[in-house]
Design brief:
7% strand; mainly alpha; 137 residues; 3 helices; two-stranded parallel sheet; disordered N terminus; single chain; 36% helix
Length: 137
C-alpha cells in the first residue's frame, strides 16, 4: 500500500520468518484440514478459489529452492480432489527475489505488490470467466 518502496534494513539471516517449499507439508492431514475449512465456506454459499502466496526464493532453504514445480504439482493434485474448489494460480508465477520484500518474507515492496496483485486478479478473472460468474463483477 502506498507509493514508496521500502527496503529491508537487515539481511536474510536476520529475517523474523522462514519460507519453505517442502513437499512434506502437503500431506493428507493438512489437506483434509484445509478441505474442511473450504467446505465450511462453501456451506455458507461462497465459491472457493485458491491462489498462491508470494514466495521469497531468497528465504527458502537452499535444498528446497528448486521445489516450486513439484510443490505446484502436489497442490494441484491435492486441491483437485476437493469438491468445488479451484486452484487458480501456478506457484511458479508467484516466486520473487529477496529485494522484492521488506520487513518480512510476506510484504512485497510497492512495484512487486502491484505486479503480484495484477497477476492474482488475472488468475481470478480467468477462473471466474470459466465458471460463468464474471459477468456483473
Amino acid at each position: 500500500f502506498g507509493g514508496i518502496p521500502f527496503f529491508r534494513s537487515g539481511t536474510e539471516d536476520d529475517l523474523p520468518d522462514l519460507v519453505y517449499l517442502d513437499p512434506a507439508f502437503i500431506d493428507e492431514g493438512a489437506m483434509e484440514r484445509l478441505g474442511n475449512y473450504y467446505a465450511w465456506f462453501q456451506s455458507q454459499g461462497a465459491r472457493v478459489y485458491v491462489s498462491c502466496a508470494c514466495v521469497n526464493l531468497g528465504a527458502v532453504p537452499e535444498g528446497q529452492q528448486n521445489n516450486a514445480p513439484l510443490m505446484d504439482h502436489l497442490l494441484r493434485e491435492a486441491i483437485g480432489r476437493m469438491e468445488g474448489v479451484a486452484l487458480i494460480s501456478s506457484l511458479e508465477d508467484y516466486l520473487y527475489q529477496n529485494s522484492d520484500f521488506f520487513d518480512t518474507n510476506y510484504h512485497l515492496v510497492t512495484q512487486a505488490a502491484k505486479e503480484n496483485t495484477a497477476l492474482w486478479l488475472r488468475d481470478l478473472r480467468t477462473q471466474m470467466e470459466r465458471d460463468g460468474v464474471w459477468e456483473g463483477v
